Prior knowledge:
Strand order of the largest sheet: 6-3-2-7-8-9
CATH topology of the largest domain: Rossmann fold
Distance between the termini: 35 Å
Helix content: 25-40%
CATH superfamily of the largest domain: Crotonobetainyl-coa:carnitine coa-transferase, domain 1
Number of domains: 2
Shape: elongated
Number of strands: 14
Amino acid sequence: MVQVEETATDEALNHGRPLEGVRVLALEQMQALPFATQLLARLGAEVVKVEAPDGGDSGRLAMPAMADPEGRMVGATYLRNNLNKRSISINLKDPRGRQLVLDLATRFDVFAENFKGGALARLGLAYDDVHAVNERIIYVSVSGFGNDDTSPYHHWPAYAPVVEAMSGLYETKRRDGEAPRVAPGGSLGDMGTSMFATVGILAALYQRDRTGLGQQIDVAMLDSTVAMTDIITNYWSLGMPGGADPPIIMHGFLARDGWFILQVGRVQQFASLARLIGHPEWITDPSLADRQGWYDSIDAVIRPAIEKWAADKTKLEACQQLGDAGLAAGPCFRDDEVVRDPHLLSRDMLVEMARPDGGAQPVIFPNNPIRMSGVPDGPVRRVPWFAEHTDEVLRNDLSLDDAVLRELHEEGVIV
């Protein structure tokens, strides 16, 4: 696994990374925006995270957690989303704090925030306020339902499960009488929103190179989640409401040590499956002549045969044999199997950070999945401790001297 604080290779130092020189001022918390700014940081951008004095990013309070060198708890959500950043703390409710942020904005390319829609406008830090001091700024707003007031949900607070529920995801394949299964894939609503925000930021930076002007980017979590769960609206429009399964084999099957997933959607694939598991007669069986026939026969015919064939195989062995036959299959790994997976290890997809509180198990994060031939991996820096870089950033960017910084500290404007 990759260790945090590893130095970049000579090649990385020679080539640099694509976003070097881009500076991001991020008024952010939790995950819907922090994952996006972390991705920008991994691509070379400098990200300065602005946290509130009363404990900072609320992701620091998430569980499970560890203790930082000062004994403050640092939650899992924060740990996953803030590598390669710096942390400062400014009281935005104090007029002097607001002015510090506006002064900083003149030195940055991107101003990113994920407050509830309209919240920063009330603090005097809306797009118009920031654009007035820096017309080249790219101002990205991430919120549950958009940063204008057109949505009936405009003032609703939102976390990932809220927009996932509203996208239709939790009703898809939910059986009668069952409660919705919340967050079945982690923070899908957060991660997907971050991806769209990142695309918007990169496109706006490219356009600024041509026009010289910045702009506002408004990304709603509900919009993003509906875009990612596109089959819900699309299938409904095509007469398949309620998230019904398409008539193909796309199911889980039991092997000796657990489950694996198999997808078969073409006639030649079905023939390969039939031959592999010892049922060549399926190929000429009229009841199995098309995809609807396969789907209708899953429980009575196909599942028993596949699971009998797989009964003496591990889920990995079954998938290897299916793959050799040209069939797409994958084992359902447990968490302890994922962190030891040879694919992930061979591609350096996991990063370890030693715990400062003495915990034996290092904290593990996914690495950057974007591989670019001209951009070797650079160093991975640990997450910043709360307000670790306040004085450094204000001294370097705004030329504040020790006396001014001391006064701002004493009066609670900065931490």
